[in-house]
Design goal:
Elements: H1 21-27, H2 32-43, H3 49-60, E1 71-74, E2 77-81, H4 91-109, E3 113-118, H5 122-131, E4 137-144, H6 150-157, E5 164-170, H7 173-185, H8 187-192, E6 195-196, H9 203-220, E7 228-233, H10 238-249, E8 253-260, H11 265-272, E9 275-276, H12 296-303, H13 308-321, E10 323-324, H14 328-337, E11 338-342, H15 345-359, H16 365-377, E12 384-388, H17 396-403, E13 424-427, H18 430-440
Parallel strand pairs: 2-12, 3-4, 3-6, 4-5, 5-13, 7-8, 7-12, 8-11
Antiparallel strand pairs: 1-2, 9-10
Bound molecules: pyridoxal-5'-phosphate and the ligand N[C@@H](CCOP(=O)(O)O)C(=O)O.
Cofactor: pyridoxal 5'-phosphate
Domain Threonine synthase N-terminal: 1-60
Family: Belongs to the threonine synthase family.
Length: 442
């Protein structure tokens, strides 16, 4: 419920449960909701099992596929479709649940909450759909003005419920995320306005995303013990960090393949140990146009052997010198756990095109980044699951460039251009955003 810890750091569980082969085998055939209950219960020990079950069932009843996150086989790869929720991106898997968890806990405590979030396109609409119309919740979402896809922007700004406030910020996603962190670090403001977080700084977001790594693993392996790869298109390091948690819990993942677009700070880190900030580049996979990968801090905690003081020093160094350094031995650990490729826009468009030509399947540009990275990195025949993080209809322009035709539009997007919108255009300035929250908070 608190989002960031009071010292400005990200929260983690005290310990990560370890699963043995027998437990894993007994989960092999569970439906998604049942599996979610088993995994989330290991962490959410303060919510009675019957309540958690009903929250999970309600959250996934809004998905249009009965399997919630089905896996399909295409061109020798397994595609984990994470876009069957209300806003057609993987964020729905966590945010449908988070909206209901917030409502449940606020009701229990007799409290209200003002959510403040940042989005490069997908978190925003998924969070808005997760909490729209909820009595005790107000939501403020900042997106970088003109830098999301047109569909992403409309999915947010056409929601007119009185508890929803969209802010187009003159700046980048990093500016928006920075303002969120500044507001959460202003403890007096955080307390006065009861701020809540929907970004992956909220541990519950990561936890809900852990589930589909298990679900996909069980779909593509015959027995527990076989090792596989996951290829994850990455921006804020949240989704792939969920995979890392699954691996630490004992899921047999040989390596996580981290795929970036031209905003490749994480690829440079994994391949050369170079974590140095650059300028944000606008690409055809806009949701990954991020330099400061928020969850990287969580990974560093484990890489540094649980030494929080070193994590704090690393981020002080980032603020001072624009870079974080690790030792050779630590880099070797990183490279044993991850492999990485940066895929540029031309390659992304070419991947959508060639994949479509070979299979008839249309990839969205973010998924295409992950597919291309997998094609380059997997040379040993190990089964590989590529996370399909969004539906291609959210990024029609890029798809048309690649295959010369629009992807089919799901019902959720029909007529969205004709709907009225509401949004405020503001500077990337903390005081301006605070002022708006003061005016609209309930
Ligand atoms: C469609 C899509 N793919 C990939 C990503 C990257 O995920 P993460 O920021 O968790 O690394 C995002 C943004 O979060 C996204 O919206
Ligand atoms: N790509 C994200 C950026 C925010 O990431 P989050 O996972 O921390 O919420 C988006 O689409 O908004």
């Amino acid at each position: 419920m608190m989002g960031l810890a009071d010292d400005g750091g990200l929260l983690l569980p005290e310990s990560i449960p370890q699963l043995d082969r027998t437990t894993l085998s007994s989960w092999q055939d569970l439906p998604y909701q049942e599996l979610a209950l088993r995994i989330i219960s290991l962490f959410a020990t303060d919510i009675p099992a019957a309540d958690l079950k009903s929250l999970i069932d309600r959250s996934y009843s809004t998905f249009t596929h009965r399997e919630i996150t089905p896996v399909v086989r295409q061109d020798g790869l397994y595609i984990l479709e994470l876009f069957h929720g209300p806003t057609l991106a993987f964020k729905d898997v966590a945010l449908q649940l988070l909206g209901n968890l917030f409502e449940y806990l606020l009701e229990e405590r007799g409290e209200r909450m003002n959510i403040v979030g940042a989005t490069s396109g997908d978190t925003g609409s998924a969070a808005i759909y997760g909490v729209r119309g909820k009595e005790k919740i107000n939501i403020f979402i900042m997106h970088p003005h003109g830098k999301t896809s047109p569909v992403q922007e409309r999915q947010m700004t056409t929601v007119l419920d009185p508890n929803v406030h969209n802010i187009a910020v003159r700046g980048t996603f990093d500016d928006c995320q920075n303002i969120v962190k500044i507001l959460f670090n202003d403890l007096a403001f955080k307390e006065e306005y009861a701020l809540g977080a929907v970004n992956s700084i909220n541990w519950a977001r990561v936890l809900a995303q852990v589930v589909y790594y298990f679900y996909a693993y069980f779909r593509v392996t015959a027995s527990c013990g076989e090792e596989i790869y996951f290829s994850v298109p990455t921006g804020n390091f949240g989704d792939i960090f969920a995979g890392y948690v699954a691996k630490r819990m004992g899921l047999p993942i040989r390596r996580l393949l981290l795929a970036t677009n031209e905003n490749n700070i994480l690829t440079r880190f994994i391949n050369q140990g170079d974590y140095s900030l650059g300028e944000v580049v606008q690409t055809v996979s806009p949701s990954m146009d991020i330099q400061v990968a928020s969850n990287f801090e969580r990974y560093l905690y484990y890489l540094f052997g649980g030494d929080s003081a070193r994590v704090r020093d690393a981020f002080a160094s980032l603020a001072r010198n624009g870079r974080i350094d690790v030792s050779r031995a630590e880099l070797a650990t990183v490279q044993a756990e991850f492999a990485s490729r940066s895929v540029n826009q031309e390659e992304t468009i070419a991947t959508i095109s060639s994949f479509h030509a070979q299979t008839g399947y249309i990839l969205d540009p973010h998924t295409a980044v992950g597919v291309q990275a997998a094609r380059e990195l997997v040379t040993d025949g190990t089964p590989t699951v590529c996370l399909a993080t969004a539906h291609p209809a959210k990024f029609a322009e890029a798809v048309v460039r690649a295959i010369g035709q629009e992807p089919p539009r799901p019902a959720a997007l029909q007529g969205i251009e004709a709907l009225p919108t509401r949004c405020e255009l503001l500077d990337a300035d903390r005081e301006t955003i605070k002022e708006l929250i003061r005016k609209k908070a309930r």
